[in-house]
Amino acid sequence: MLSTNYAVLYDFARNMKTIRIEKNISLVKLANLTGLHINFLCKVEKAQSNPSLYSMYKIATALNIRLIDLLDVRDIIFDI
Question: I want to staple 33 with a disulfide (CB 3.0 to 4.6 A). Which of 17, 24, 48, 62 is the partner?
């Protein structure tokens, strides 16, 4: 089982890549739309980088979706 922290990051990465591909947006185009570096976006999609809230907002806006759509973590059990 993944740790909760990694599970949230992994779900964000998976959702981001899935939505980006569904919308036929390349990483190059997403980088241009967000102003974020393509290497950073690649790492985010591989769950190798933890994006800030502002970066997540920029990604969601560029994909023309709500931020909550990228943060769909309903299946994760949180230990609070």
Answer: 62
- Looking at residues 33-60, what average pLDDT do you find? 97
Q: Is the pLDDT of residue 1 over 50?
A: no
CA-nearest of 38, 30, 39 to 58 is 30
Work out the pLDDT band at 6, boundaries 50, 70, 90.
Answer: confident
For the cut 80, the answer to whether the pLDDT of residue 28 exceeds it is: yes
C-alpha–C-alpha distance, residues 32 and 72, integer Å:
25
Hey, how many other C-beta atoms are within 10 angstroms of the C-beta on 59? Answer: 24
For residue 70, which of 1, 2, 19, 6 has the smallest C-alpha distance?
19
Listed in sequence order, the DSSP H helices in the chain are: 4-22, 27-34, 38-45, 53-62, 67-70
Q: What is the dihedral of CA 43, 15, 18, 56, to 10 degrees?
A: -60
